[in-house]
Structure formats: structure tokens, C-alpha cells
Amino acid sequence: MAGAATSAIKSVLTRHLHASPGSKKIVGVFYKANEYAALNPNFVGCVEGALGIRDWLESQGHQYIVTDDKEGPNSAIAHRAYDLEGKTVGTVGAGRIGKLLLQRLKPFNCNLLYHDRLKMDPELENQIGAKFEEDLDAMLPKCDIIVINTPLTEKTRGLFDKDRIAKCKKGVLIVNNARGAIMDTQAVADACSSGHVAGYSGDVWFPQPAPKDHPWRYMPNHAMTPHISGTTIDAQLRYAAGTKDMLERYFKGEEFPPQNYIVKEGKLASQYQ
Questions:
Q1: Collapsing DSSP states into helix, strand and coil, what is residue 202?
Q2: What are phi and psi for residue 250, nearest 5 degrees?
Q3: Please, what is the end-to-end C-alpha distance for the chain in angstroms?
Q4: pLDDT of 29-82, one tens digit each?
Q5: Residue partners of 14: CB distance under 8 A and separation at least 6
Q6: Which residues contact 166 (CB under 8 A, 6 or more apart)?
Q7: What share of the chain is helix, strand, coil (3-state, %, to 5)?
Q8: What is the pLDDT of residues 89-141, one digit of tens each?
Q9: Is 154 exposed, middle or buried (0-12, 13-18, 19+ CB in 10 A)?
Q10: In sequence order, which residues have a C-beta less than 8 Å from that of residue 10 and are 6 or more positions away?
Q11: 186-236 pLDDT per residue, tens
Q12: Please, which residues bridge with residue 78 across strands?
């Protein structure tokens, strides 16, 4: 203990001896990250990280005092918070919903990728600034965020199994806007538990409604919600109007818009094949 105290005193004296007449006392007020401080080297906005400027300030002869404020016990959640700007977002499926997603992400200055059976119209692709990825497995390691917008078919059922999830970048965020059965349930839970997937979210489960013992209810780093996206008042008005439009076309013997077909003449519509 005596040796430690002596070292501490020497350290303080050394700092003061090197202080120049123009030295300043800098006070930084942050929250305590506690054990989370060691989980991310870039988590500098906490007491332990002190913005990463202590050595620089003290080498200039300044005093740097860091303290914590009165934030609550959960402020350490920031060790997993990032900006969307500058991140690579890839959509698996670029149909109607996938295209809308890419269009709405454009103002956030993301690097946009998309995988689909078909390449979108070059003019639209240019306008959005998205890049076509023909090979899904080649796209996955490039993505910080993966959004699933593909229909559930026999080709996409179980598409994200253990092996495919392993091809994703460590720390990836996955948002499933499509169907729960596209994912291997246990593979997702295991990847979230290991930290390979930093976060999984969606309102789609398999089966649905999910049983009480569904692994996604208890895995870490998830943001699962009930499947209620289609029940907002705005959505109800949209599908009411859409139903009326389709009935009017049917009564007149008119064709439906191609995107409204699921089955046509006994076959799945092209977008589901």
C-alpha cells in the first residue's frame, strides 16, 4: 500500500512540475460505464474512457479532472449505440418494400446494397444510389445492417441458417421485415448470445403467435414486438382503399396491378417465384 501511495504522489508531483504557467484545469463530466467500458475500445464518452484525451491534455501540462453526473444506472447502454450515417445497409429483397426502404435511407448517407433475383431499373438504381449484389453470400460480410424484405417461399425458408449467419460481419444488426420462418430460430438466438449478431429486431415470429418459451423472447440484444405493423389507422385506410380498388377492377373484368397478385392462373406471381 505504501508503494502504491508513493507512486501516486510522484505521479501528481510530476504533473504539477510539468505544468506551465498557462496550464488549465479541464473538467469532464460523463456517466460511469462500469464493466461496459472494457467492451468497446471506442466507448470513450464515459468516465472510464474520458474522451481518450487524458494523455494528450496532461502532456501539454494541463490538469484533467473527470467525474460522473447524475444519470441513471443504465446510461452504459451507449456502448452499443452508433450513427446510421456512413454505415453499409443491405436489403435482402428489393421489391416494393425493399425499394421504399432504400429510398428512405438515402438521406442518411448510408452505403446502400441490395440483393434480389432481378436488378432494378438502372435509372431508379442511379437515383437511389444503391448497388446490386448478385451473390447474397458476398454481400453479407460487407453489411453493418441487414434488412430482410423478401417473401417467404420454399427458396427463402430457413435462408438465414447457422452457416449463412456466420458469413455476416461480427456485430451486425439484423432487421426482419418479412417472415420469421426465413430465419433459423435457434441460429439467431445463438448468434445473439455469442455477440456475433449485435442485435436482432422485427415483428415477425415463427410460429406466430409465438409460444411463451420461444427463444427469441429470452435471447439478449433483441427488439422483438408483436406483429401489429398493419394495424395502424393509416395502414387500415390504405388496405381498405386497396380492397375497394381491387373489387371495382374485378367487377369490371379488369386486371389487377402486377404487384397485387400472389397467385395468378394457378401459379405463384413472378415476384414470389
A1: strand
A2: -65, -45
A3: 73
A4: 887 888 888 888 888 888 888 888 889 888 888 888 888 865 566 676 677 788
A5: none
A6: 196
A7: 40, 20, 40
A8: 999 999 889 999 999 999 999 999 999 999 999 999 999 999 999 999 999 99
A9: exposed
A10: none
A11: 999 999 999 999 999 999 999 988 999 999 999 999 999 888 777 778 888
A12: none
Residue located via cell numbers 410460429: 207
Separate counts of helices (H) and strands (E) for the chain: 8, 11
The grid coordinates of residue 217 equal: 423472447
Joined together, the cell numbers standing for residue 128 give 437511389
- Torsion of the alpha carbons at 197, 201, 206 and 212, rounded to the nearest 10: 100
Selection from 212, 239, 208, 238 nearest residue 226 by Cα: 208
Q: Which of 137, 102, 132 is nearest to 115 (CA)?
A: 132
d(CA 94, CA 259): 13
* Number of C-beta neighbours around residue 109 at 10 A: 13
Which of the four pLDDT bands, split at 50, 70 and 90, describes residue 6? very low
| pLDDT for 12 | 40
DSSP 144-190: SEEEE-----TTTTT-B-HHHHHTSPTTEEEEE-S-GGGB-HHHHHH
- CA–CA distance, 50 with 160 (Å, rounded to integer): 40
Amino acid at 248: E
